[in-house]
């Protein structure tokens, strides 16, 4: 049996660092939603392509938080353990949001010729408001419960 340790590309995680990365992921998901709304409103396919990069970054943060929580959770007090578990739950949701936004962008690009500017504008306002409200509601509930 080998005694070699598995190396991760991230520095030794800390509770505060993992919370900070989770908040950064929330902002990244909000940015991706805004890009989706702008891409549909303006018909800018290049903006919709930017969602792919946001999704890759969300994936990387998800892996980092998952790995960090796994290695940190047994070394912190109970209150911090709860926050780390909350970070993992939030990251699961954000990862799903990123996947859905990427699916949305792919579908929007495929349907670009069929969407007229009026429909794009109406969809953009509705989509942007719905996603923003959901993200801010989740962040507010998390902040209030902490």
Explain what this protein looks like in three dimensions:
- The chain contains four helices and no strands.
- It has helices at 15-42, 45-72, 78-110, 117-145.
- α1 runs antiparallel to α2, α1 (15-42) runs parallel beside α3 (78-110) and α2 runs antiparallel to α3 (78-110).
- The model is unreliable at 1-8 (pLDDT under 50).
Secondary-structure blueprint:
Layout: H1 15-42, H2 45-72, H3 78-110, H4 117-145
Helix pairs in contact: 1-2, 1-3, 1-4, 2-3
Structure summary:
This protein has 146 residues and is an all-alpha fold. The chain has helices at 15-42, 45-72, 78-110, 117-145.
List keywords for this structure.
146 residues; mainly alpha; Methane Monooxygenase Hydroxylase, Chain G, domain 1; 4 helices; 81% helix; disordered N terminus
Which segments are poorly predicted (pLDDT under 50) over 5 or more consecutive residues?
A: 1-8
Which sequence of SSEs, written as H and E, runs from N to C? HHHH
Number of strands: 0
**CATH homologous superfamily designation:** Phosphate transport system protein phou homolog 2, domain 2
- CATH overall fold name: Methane Monooxygenase Hydroxylase, Chain G, domain 1
Question: Which sheet architecture does the biggest sheet show?
Answer: none
| Tally of individual domains | 1
**Compute the gyration radius: what is it?**
18 Å
């Amino acid at each position: 049996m080998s005694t070699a340790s598995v190396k991760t590309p991230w520095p030794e995680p800390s509770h505060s660092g993992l919370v900070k990365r989770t908040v950064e992921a929330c902002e990244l998901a909000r940015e991706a939603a805004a890009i989706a709304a702008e891409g549909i409103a303006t018909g800018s396919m290049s903006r919709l392509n930017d969602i792919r990069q946001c999704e890759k970054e969300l994936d990387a943060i998800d892996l980092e938080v998952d790995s960090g929580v796994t290695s940190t959770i047994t070394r912190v007090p109970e209150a911090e353990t709860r926050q780390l578990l909350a970070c993992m739950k939030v990251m699961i949701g954000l990862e799903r949001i990123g996947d859905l936004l990427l699916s949305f962008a792919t579908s929007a690009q495929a349907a670009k010729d069929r969407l007229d500017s009026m429909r794009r504008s109406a969809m953009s306002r509705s989509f942007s408001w719905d996603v923003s409200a959901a993200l801010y509601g989740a962040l507010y509930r998390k902040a209030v419960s902490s």
